[in-house]
Fold this protein.
Amino acid sequence: MAKKKQTPRAGADRKARVEELKRQQKAAERRKTFLFGGVGILIAATLIAIPVVSIVNKDKEKKRAFEELGVPTALAACDTTQTDKVDANDGDHENDPSVRINYDTAPPSHGRHFAAPATINSRGFYTKSDAPRLEELVHNLEHGYNVVWYDPDAVTGQQLEDLKTLAAKFRDDNETRKFIAVPWDAARGKFPAGKTIAMAHWGAPKEAGDYATSTGYRQYCGQVSGGAIRAFVQAHPSSDSPEPNTM
């Protein structure tokens, strides 16, 4: 039987169908690529978002845990943070432990100090019976510690217990472990009227080794407030100090 001859029209139609099939196949492949790409982006975004959300939630939990101790920040009667000018020789050491160094502010945020800092206990909290000497604690300030001095005659009962808990929490966190809560000796100077808490930090020099370019920070509050103390500690990390890499 003779083979039927393909007409030009039939050939054109066949070619058009082949081209349409190719076009549809390419479109399907593009949709598949887009779908897989979108899913990949979604998975990547989710993997990134999970740790970010976890960090944010952890920080919120920490904040709540601190704010539950003492009075709310708004009720703590805190003054704004004061800044103190540091002298060029404030990094000098006093080697005679019998010497009493006089400081211009109560408490000091910087100054000449004993050659050895106080060795801090695991609690980071002290009473009158075991408080380190002031001249030792100023050395701790130089090393990046935040020191909270409290009036032992006014901070009693639940406030004192809350301060103990706060100190333990700070000491338990590697980022804030350079923290000390210690009673203030009124013989070394008076807090402003109505204030029972004083926080201090010694900031880093703007020019390495030039103490005159560093700044001391002090803030006073009327009551123990976990929120207020945490805010001060976060504003003044141990890395911001003349000698942050020492114990």
The radius of gyration is 33 Å. Residues 159 and 224 are 6 Å apart (CA to CA). The chain has a mean pLDDT of 89.
